[in-house]
Specification:
The chain is α/β, with parallel strands linked by helices and 402 residues long. The protein has one domain: Metal-dependent hydrolases (TIM Barrel, Alpha-Beta Barrel). The protein contains 14 helices and nine strands.
């Protein structure tokens, strides 16, 4: 884990407001050293220096994270979410080495905010509050264009890209996409595990594919310049979206079903179709997702088994990382919302050892540093590492965001 970035001046979320007067305060999880550092990398001095250089000098992009910090007591999670003011983890991000991060604040996920699920006005409120906080500091800045990411790299900042896990909140109103784009949203999923008006999610019994309205929405996203994510969509909906889209699409956070046979992973056909149209898959690391037979206890090694498989399948130009980590107890989050998330259906019939956290990929502050260390340890070239930690994503964004 790095020392704090020089540009970071110590700002904490909502410093401009008064806790207890303007908003309800909570005790939050530690952003740094919540769990022991990863001990699985055994780098030589030269390898460690090379890894540090690459993390510091290259454009490093995480294609999928949750950069808010969660309550220390996950029993308070629902109350925390309902009060509508989730804090960005500036201290942790300052140690991440990231140039840009796609932040999926859980907007659009099935029923996360309340028993009624995310509504359009809920999402606009959440986005607006988060953006107001960003505007009061100068280290983490809104990322809406490739130029914003390049500027962040040049000036020692982090470009924060607002993203939504699904498009559920647009219901049947395609013009809502324009409003979300105007708010700064630059990436959206099709469906989050449960079906919506656009298509099917991966936890449904059947998959009818992309709907006619879903096709309209995809075309509008293409015209606006919103990157499309199919990570939580059903198999047929994924293939339909890839075929219908005029621009490459992302699988921002997933792995290969051929490595670990759950619906949360993507088929070879989906990964290949995505790559053939110019897209990229980001390898996932949320707890109990990207497991492997060789490393069934979830860790960095399990995740990299999926990385190697996908590189062999579609080539290194079409693979990157979307670790899907957060600041706090990710396993506790899954437990709290087990009825709403896809893990039960996705893991049906597959046994696995439950872990308290994913060793080596516990949070955004450590994820990309350990990934780069692993790549260096396994003799990937600088050019190869440059591609998979940011270059491939930038190539797609240059086409999608134009």
């Amino acid at each position: 884990m790095l020392e704090p970035a020089k540009r970071y001046a110590g700002y904490t979320a909502y410093d401009y407001l008064e806790e207890g007067v303007d908003y309800r305060g909570f005790a939050y999880a530690a952003q740094v050293h919540r769990v022991p550092p990863y001990a699985g990398l055994d780098l030589t001095a030269d390898q460690a220096a090379r890894a540090e250089r690459l993390l510091a000098q290259e454009t490093v992009i995480s294609l999928h994270e949750h950069v808010q910090v969660f309550p220390a007591d996950m029993g308070e999670l629902r109350d925390h979410i309902r009060q509508g003011r989730e804090p960005t983890a500036y201290e942790g991000l300052a140690r991440s080495g990231l140039t840009a991060v796609f932040d999926n604040g859980m907007d659009g996920t099935c029923c996360i905010s309340s028993d009624a699920g995310w509504k359009y006005q809920d999402v606009l409120f959440d986005l607006g509050v988060r953006m107001a906080d960003l505007a009061h500091q100068d280290f983490v800045v809104k990322g809406e264009t490739v130029a914003d990411i390049e500027h962040a790299h040049e000036t020692g900042r982090i470009a924060h890209v607002f993203a939504l896990e699904a498009s559920t909140m647009i219901e049947n109103e395609v013009d809502r996409l324009d409003v979300l784009y105007g708010f700064g949203v630059r990436q959206m999923g099709i469906a989050y595990s449960e079906a919506n008006t656009l298509g099917s999610g991966l936890k449904e019994r059947g998959d009818g594919g992309l709907t006619y309205f879903g096709e309209r929405a995809v075309k509008r996203m293409n015209k606006l310049g919103i990157a499309i994510d199919i990570s939580h969509s059903g198999d047929q909906t994924c293939l339909d979206t890839i075929a219908v889209s005029d621009k490459p699409v992302f699988i921002t956070h997933a792995g290969a079903r051929s490595v670990w046979p759950t619906n949360r992973m993507k088929t070879d056909a989906t990964i290949t179709a995505c790559a053939e149209r110019g897209g990229v898959i980001g390898i996932e690391a949320a707890p109990h997702t990207t497991l492997s037979p060789d490393h069934p206890r979830h860790s960095l090694e399990s995740v990299m088994d999926h990385f190697r498989y996908c590189v062999d399948l579609v080539g290194i130009d079409h693979v990157t990382f979307g670790p899907d980590t957060l600041f706090g107890d990710h396993v506790g989050l899954h437990d709290a919302f087990a009825a709403n998330l896809s893990l039960g259906q996705a893991h049906a019939g597959v046994e696995y050892d439950k872990v308290p956290y994913v060793d080596g990929l516990e949070n955004p502050a450590e994820a990309m540093g350990n990934i780069i260390g692993w790549l260096v340890q396994h003799d990937y070239s600088d050019d190869e590492i440059r591609k998979v930690v940011g270059g491939n994503t930038l190539r797609v964004l240059s086409e999608v965001w134009c």
